[in-house]
Specification:
alpha/beta; four-stranded mixed β-sheet
């Protein structure tokens, strides 16, 4: 995995980091047969907006986080020829590109009372206008599922990570 952090929400900046990830995977020093690009969106996410929102439930909060990630993806895609996307995947980098977002929101509790700070984390798989490699898509799904299990605190066995 080539993990890149974006510092701005400008489409060209986002695409440049994606391109950097593809180049890292394709570099001779990288021993992998194939690799995924992961874009950490921690800097351009509007976390204060998520914190200030009055979400009725976790699904609504997740939808708002996903909407912010989708907006970053749309910015990277805006006015970009398909050939530029295809050029990223001519070597060992494979689709999907994973966009990682995380924030803390306030959600109501089931017993009423004040809203509770609740962490949200998401890996959003983006096809980059092409077909996702099936094994990479499965890995992306499993990574997100494992992250959600850990976030929920679902334990593994004694001395083992969550299953």
């Amino acid at each position: 995995m080539a993990i890149k952090i974006i510092s701005a929400s400008h489409g060209q900046t986002i695409f440049d980091r994606i391109e950097d990830g593809a180049q890292q995977i394709d570099a001779p020093q990288c021993p992998a047969d194939a690799g995924l690009i992961v874009i950490n969106t921690k800097n351009p996410l509007r976390r204060q907006e998520l914190w200030d929102a009055d979400f009725p439930d976790q699904a609504s909060a997740q939808a708002a986080l996903k909407a912010q990630l989708m907006e970053l993806i749309r910015r990277a895609e805006r006015d970009r020829p398909q050939a530029e996307w295809e050029g990223l995947f001519t070597g060992r980098a494979v689709r999907p590109i994973l966009f990682m977002g995380q924030s803390v929101v306030r959600l109501p509790t089931s017993v009423g009372g004040p809203q509770t700070p609740t962490p949200l984390k998401m890996l959003l798989a983006h096809d980059a206008r092409g077909v996702m490699e099936p094994q990479a898509k499965a890995i992306a799904y499993l990574l997100n599922e494992q992250m959600q299990r850990i976030l929920r605190g679902i334990p593994g066995g004694p001395g083992q990570p969550p299953q």
